[in-house]
């Protein structure tokens, strides 16, 4: 498996050969490059970096390598241990740190891990900053500290509590109403850190929690991407226990999906739509999501008199456009809610609190809430990349074929038809081409995706 170096961080599978996988040597190499970059940002006497990890099996090994590499550069480390991506993002500015690293491969299976890199604001690095770190990693100019200048590691286990307190203090989180509603919720923590922090949050909100796969041992009980086909156990548990709904998060707790009281998917794309509906009803304004997200967010935004715009895929791209457009809420259709009143990062804790506030306000079931939104259906398919496949050339051919349609080419090729769309792009995190489509029925969305898979196959043979 080739090591993937992208805007989303340094990601690869554990084991294998140096340079081809995320080996200990690769972890040290890129951690050192990041540390050098941190020191280049400001000339000061001491530097501090926050480090945390999800519960995957390789996490402790990779974290120790990363932290001690930073120590070797003379950088002090605040060790959060088991944590979440949004928790580390919030800890960076709270600690007045110079940056942060989360050891997580997000939704990827257990053999994967990654270094996700943050700046001093607790936000992901942009493409130029990432490119600079890759340049440093390939140079021979990294100089480590002498024995009297080594950094120190300080453990801090308070940040789950601090994160929860920050969420509960948000103006739009209606704690009394949620407590009065006496919700019963099943939580699937996919045996990672969501199994720790999500029940803690819900209990503070007076929610009766039923735990499912909440032991943070890194043994994912199902594919950790929160898609319908992976959530049959959660669906059954919701129905069996008579719960109001179910919650599932990915291993690093920045993606969020809901199961309704009947065991049916609320729709991962509709996590952001529902949270935006609640926020916009109280603070009208603009929204942003990425190009692969549902049109329903646009519809809800326009209902409240705001404007919607789509960014290139990638959290840093979404955040950049959110800041430019001064939006009140944004995110990604994969269940990633970004609420600027909290911080500029996808945060399942914030999403849960806003969703519960919406339900407590409307006093309706989750299935009834879903029926209040425009009904779109999405197909998410992919093609494995083979060596020598000219993906850029294929996408250029598609672009030329559909030049008379509404095209967007800031990230792959997106074609907007009257009642449907297709988005074709190379993944930032896996060696695949993603084919996302949306239409007025599931059959139409699937048929449209299959049509473009066939077209790509035809072009690749030319």
TrEMBL record:
Q: Which SUPFAM superfamilies does the entry mention?
A: Phosphoglucomutase, C-terminal domain, Phosphoglucomutase, first 3 domains
Entry GO CC:
cytosol
Task: Name the UniProt key words of this record, in alphabetical order.
Answer: Isomerase, Magnesium, Metal-binding, Phosphoprotein
- A biological-process GO annotation: UDP-N-acetylglucosamine biosynthetic process
Q: Which cofactor does it need?
A: Mg(2+)
Keyword Phosphoprotein set for record: yes
Domain of life of the source = Bacteria
Please give the Gene Ontology molecular function terms for this protein: magnesium ion binding; phosphoglucosamine mutase activity; phosphomannomutase activity
Where is the Alpha-D-phosphohexomutase C-terminal domain positioned along the sequence?
A: 395-454
Instruction: Quote the InterPro entries the UniProt record gives.
Output: A-D-PHexomutase_a/b/a-I (IPR005844), A-D-PHexomutase_a/b/a-I/II/III (IPR016055), A-D-PHexomutase_a/b/a-II (IPR005845), A-D-PHexomutase_a/b/a-III (IPR005846), A-D-PHexomutase_C (IPR005843), A-D-PHexomutase_C_sf (IPR036900), A-D-PHexomutase_CS (IPR016066), Alpha-D-phosphohexomutase_SF (IPR005841)
Q: Does the keyword Magnesium apply?
A: yes
User: Domain named Alpha-D-phosphohexomutase alpha/beta/alpha: which ranges?
Assistant: 8-140, 177-263, 270-374
Record-stated family: Belongs to the phosphohexose mutase family.
Identification of the protein by name:
Phosphoglucosamine mutase
Q: Which organism is it from?
A: Confluentibacter flavum
């Amino acid at each position: 498996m080739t090591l993937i170096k992208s805007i989303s961080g340094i990601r690869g599978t554990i084991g294998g050969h140096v340079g081809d996988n995320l080996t200990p040597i690769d972890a040290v190499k890129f951690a050192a490059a990041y540390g050098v970059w941190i020191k280049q940002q400001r000339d000061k006497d001491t530097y501090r970096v926050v480090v945390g990890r999800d519960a995957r099996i390789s996490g402790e090994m990779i974290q120790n390598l990363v932290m001690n590499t930073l120590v070797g550069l003379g950088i002090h480390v605040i060790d959060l241990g088991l944590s979440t991506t949004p928790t580390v993002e919030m800890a960076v500015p709270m600690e007045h740190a110079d940056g942060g690293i989360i050891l997580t491969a997000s939704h990827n299976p257990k053999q994967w891990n990654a270094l996700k890199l943050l700046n001093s604001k607790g936000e992901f690095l942009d493409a130029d900053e990432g490119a600079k770190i890759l340049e440093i990693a390939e140079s021979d100019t990294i100089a480590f500290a002498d024995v009297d200048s080594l950094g120190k590691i300080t453990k801090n286990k308070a940040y789950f509590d601090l994160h929860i307190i920050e969420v509960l203090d948000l103006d739009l989180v209606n704690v009394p109403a949620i407590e009065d509603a006496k919700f019963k919720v099943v939580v699937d923590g996919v045996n990672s850190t969501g199994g720790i922090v999500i029940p803690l949050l819900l209990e503070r909100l007076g929610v009766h929690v039923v735990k499912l796969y909440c032991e943070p041992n890194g043994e994912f009980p199902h594919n950790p991407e929160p898609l319908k086909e992976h959530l049959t156990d959660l669906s059954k548990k919701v129905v069996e226990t008579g719960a109001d709904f179910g919650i599932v998060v990915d291993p690093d707790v920045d993606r969020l999906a809901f199961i309704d009281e009947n065991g049916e998917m609320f729709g991962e794309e509709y996590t952001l739509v529902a949270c935006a509906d609640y926020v916009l009803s109280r603070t009208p304004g603009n929204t942003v999501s990425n190009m692969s997200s549902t049109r329903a967010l646009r519809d809800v935004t326009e209902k409240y008199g705001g404007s919607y715009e789509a960014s290139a895929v990638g959290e840093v791209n979404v955040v950049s456009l959110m800041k430019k457009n001064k939006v009140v809420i944004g995110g990604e259709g994969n269940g990633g809610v970004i609420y600027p009143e909290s911080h500029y990062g996808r945060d399942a804790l914030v999403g849960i609190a806003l969703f519960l506030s919406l339900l407590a306000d409307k006093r309706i079931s989750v299935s009834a809430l879903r029926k209040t939104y425009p009904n779109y259906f999405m197909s998410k398919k992919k093609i494995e990349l083979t060596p020598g496949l000219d993906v850029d050339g294929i996408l250029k051919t598609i672009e030329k074929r559909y030049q008379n349609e509404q095209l967007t080419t800031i990230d792959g090729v997106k074609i907007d038809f009257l009642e449907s769309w297709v988005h074709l792009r190379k993944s930032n995190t896996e060696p695949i081409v993603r084919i996302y489509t949306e239409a007025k029925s599931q059959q139409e969305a699937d048929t449209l995706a299959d049509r473009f898979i066939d077209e790509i196959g035809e072009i690749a043979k030319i």
